Amino acid sequence: MTISGKLRLGVNIDHVATVRNARGGDTPDPLRAARVAQDAGADGITAHLREDRRHISDADIEGLMDILTVPLNFEMAATEEMQQIALRHKPHAVCIVPEKREERTTEGGLEVAREENRLAHYIAPLRDAGCRVSIFIAADVRQIDAAHRIGAQVIELHSGAYCDAHHENRLDDRDRELNSLREMSTYAHSLGLEVHVGHGLTYETVKPVAAFPEVMELNIGHFLIGEAIFRGLQPAMAEMRRLMDEARAGNFA
User: Fold this and answer.
1) Collapsing DSSP states into helix, strand and coil, what is residue 9?
2) Is 51 a catalytic residue?
C-alpha cells in the first residue's frame, strides 16, 4: 500500500440531528448540513444510526443515500438490525463502533480481539455487498491485529484520550497518547490496513495527527458543528482543512 499526500476530511453530521431532535420537528436538517459540507469540500459524510435513534434517523440515512455525491460512512453497532439496514442501502463504507445506551457519545474503541469469530462472520456479508468495512478501535496492537485478521479493510483509531489529555492540560498523558496514535498508525499501515483517525479533534489538536503520513482520513463532527454555530459550517470546515493541509505539508507554525 502506498502513502498518499492527500488527507481526506469526513464530516460527521450526527449533532445537527441532536439539535433537531431536542425540540422535535424538522429543523435543523441534517441533510442540509450534509449538502453544505459536501459543497464546502468534505471528502465524505459520516452518520451514526444508533439503536435508540437518539440523533440520526432511518429517514436521514435514506435521504443521505439519495442526495450525496461523496461517500457515506455509515457508523453502526454490530447488530443484526444494523447489518440489514446497511445491506439494504449499501453505503460506500460501514464503520463498526461500540454502542452503549447510557453513553453520551462513543466512549472507546470496539473490543475486536474478544469477538473475532462473531465479527468476522458479521462483516463478511457487508464486504460481499461492496461496502468498505472499517473498525473503530483504540490505538492498540492487539485490536489492530484482530481487525486485520477478521478482514477489515480500514481501521479508525480513537483519538479521544489524546484530545481529552490536551484540553485538560495533562501534557505527559497527551504526549503518550499521541505517540501511541503515531506508532499504531505506522503499524496498521504495515499490515495493509487503511488508517483513519477520529473523535474529539479540534483546531488545537488536529495538526499533530494530520501530520502522520499513514493517516488517510480524519472524521470530525461535534467540534465542527459547534464551531458552525458561531462562524457557519463552510468557514468552520475551511479552517480545519487549512490546518490539516499545513500539517501535511510539514508546517506547524
Assistant:
1) strand
2) no
